[in-house]
Amino acid sequence: MPDLPLLDLAALRALARDSAAIAGACACVAPAPIAWTSMPMELPQSRLERIATLIAAADYELSVEEYHPRGTHYWSPDAPIAIDRYPGNHCDVWRCRQCGRCFLHYTEGGGYFVDRRIRLLDPALIVDTSIAQD
Length: 134
Known about the structure:
Layout: H1 9-20, E1 37-38, E2 48-53, E3 92-96, E4 102-109, E5 114-120
Antiparallel strand pairs: 1-5, 2-3, 3-4, 4-5
């Protein structure tokens, strides 16, 4: 597997803006999850290509602390995307091979299951945790 570029906050925001500007119909749009969800059957992983990562290679034990300054929670459609907090820090960035829209993707592993989770990359939700949020 080739090494993936590690995106910083500015690069992720730029990619998200480009992705959000894509107009037109695509099979990835209908099931495109705004909040975290299991990979929809209508959006097979083969339709996507992995293009970058948010996982800092030097971090052996990645934090599982979430970031919800406005009372959101993991499942909230408006939950912030923070690259240094869970689940952002466990994600790779995937792009639709047909239209170019981007998604965050990671694998949730529990005691008895593995669940591939996905979320549409929304530039409005990307936050800098070093800056106080209202």
